[in-house]
Amino acid sequence: MAHIDAGKTTTTERILYYSGYTRSLGDVDDGDTVTDFMAQERERGITIQSAAVTFDWKGYRINLIDTPGHVDFTLEVERCLRVLDGAVAVFDASAGVEAQTLTVWRQADKHKIPRICFLNKMDKIGASFNYAVESIREKLKAKPLLLQLPIGEGKTFKGVVDVVSKEKLLWNPNSDDGKDFERKPLLEMSDPELLKEITEARNALIEQVADLDDEFADLVLGEFSENFDLLPAEKLQTAVHRVTLAQTAVPVLCGSALKNKGVQPLLDAITMYLPSPEERNYEFLQWYKGDLCALAFKVLHDKQRGPLVFLRIYSGMIKRQLAIHNINGNCTERISRLLLPFADQHVEIPSLTAGNIALTVGLKHTATGDTIVSSKSSALAACRRAEREGEKKHRQNDEAERLLLAGVEIPEPVFFCTIEPPSVAKQPDLDHALKCLQREDPSLKVKLDPDSGQTILCGMGELHIEIIHDRIKREYGLETYLGPLQVAYRETILNSVRATDTLDRTLGDRRHLVTVELEAKSLETSSLLPVIEYAASVAQDLSQASREAIENGLHSACLQGPLLGSPVQDVAITLHSLAIHPGTSTAMISACVSRCLQKALKKADKQILEPLMNLEVTVTRDYLSPVLADLAQRRGNIQEIQTRQDNKVVIGFVPLAEIMGYSTVLRTLTSGSATFALELSNYQAMNPQDQSTLLSQRSGSS
């Protein structure tokens, strides 16, 4: 995992090559521009690359998942982290910690994933090992354990020194593929200075690990307090392994994937320091008692085989022809074939056990983030165990539910635009394509505009929607037309309002009569769904069916606000009185409550909320002032300007509406030298002036 362009894909390529997985070295053609990276992402990256690959290294079986670094695909990263046991964070040694590095690091913290840092691009001009390590310490607030030091930096980078075993690893400069390198112990005669430096580094490492690990501290203080040099490398390695698992520190290695240096020691470090599946403790597993529990974390559509679902097996085992139960979809399906994503061909296998990643054929209804178990009864049994445990600890039951559905939180889409097929006849094809793409990528939402009947795509960013458009053309052969991008606004109210409504209809011989009085007021805290309360007099004799009907009515009224027809959030609704004539259908109750709330919202003081983005722009000194001037025009709010070697990093907030098409503008302003990263911060109220401008634009155009 890494920031865009730190060299994840190249590192992955090399790893696969050295493990004998691929025959030839993949080439990313000096891909150090973001655009190359995108073209390559299109040509190759949407294949199996970001899914899983299985390979062997020195007797270990490793499942590798390469994650995208682009901010529009945060969900993709989140999804992969969910099923991993450990991670390698790749850094560009000349840039250190960048915007996206922080994002993926936070995600890994959230899922409590042990990780190793790999400082890549040590051969790049401006590469600085110390700067990169310092930025890990400062910005990620992590404790770096230096297990290697580079020999030379930038143009002079030749190899690395292994601090743990005091050996130097030099790669043969004439070798094409970096397969042959020599490992020599450091000697007093040949490298006195280097040896002195490494001994100091090793002693510092030993002290650092001893501070974090008591067992190791006892060992060091007991047997080896006089002379750290006598401490065997194996003892230090097991201690580093424990500290990595405890996530109190991160091992740091370095190299240059493009120049084929330092990748083999990285593989050794993965097997040595990152956890095996047995060493990860997932809380929800204890409820399953060895029954099957797996998570579908990726769906790909294969022309011949239909949907291929990637599963991470947490417990139990999977066999082919096995019937499984999908908790999220509440349906039972059969796995027709099981494949291992091995090398360039998928190998068919009869069964797979816990800890593995499987590729299944035959699951037609499973989508990304679904939990798969052996049967409905197994899930219920697990749920009961969790509830019993919950009662002991006085936890609420929804906690138990949450442990079972170990899915992925899907961020709310912030951009949307209409998509049109080339002709009405092609609409069913477009619907099919979108349905398949949604199963692969849950952060893409598709909805129908009730007024115009158009299909609307909702996504995470311009690039996201562009790629979806591109894939519909490439994979489904449909030329579609995208409307202009629009921003997903929300609405709320500022005061408290009351309304009453009566619905009286006679259908056939049944009279439906509902009278309702409710109050809507603004909430202090942020909540997407309305908070619903009932007055004591109403709550007493309300049946479950009526209660559900009321809540459905209130929720549906909140989907389309009075100003822009955007969802209404941060409202609390209190039902003061409700009279229902016997025999009234639930649909009528819903309709009446919904109409009454719409009435109340129309009367209230209304406020539009707009998505506010965190923006980070990295720019050279010369272009700083035009970039700042441009941001000021975009209602930007600059928080701070940091210095990162020769660059300035501008950090601030800017409304999403003002940042459409920013990438082209930024490229023009800075002659292509700046990069930027965006992510949703929160929704904030628009000021009255901007709000009235927006409303007059909307009413003028519609």
From TrEMBL:
Keyword Cell membrane applies: no
Chief localisation class: mitochondrion
Keywords tagged on the record: GTP-binding, Hydrolase, Mitochondrion, Nucleotide-binding, Protein biosynthesis
InterPro entries: EF-G-like_DII, EFG2, EFG_II, EFG_III, EFG_III/V, EFG_V, EFG_V-like, G_TR_CS
Chemical reaction(s) catalysed: GTP + H2O = GDP + phosphate + H(+)
One Pfam family named in its UniProt record: EFG_C
Subcellular location: Mitochondrion
Family stated for the protein in its record: Belongs to the TRAFAC class translation factor GTPase superfamily. Classic translation factor GTPase family. EF-G/EF-2 subfamily.
PANTHER family: RIBOSOME-RELEASING FACTOR 2, MITOCHONDRIAL (PTHR43261:SF1), TRANSLATION ELONGATION FACTOR G-RELATED (PTHR43261)
Entry protein name: Ribosome-releasing factor 2, mitochondrial
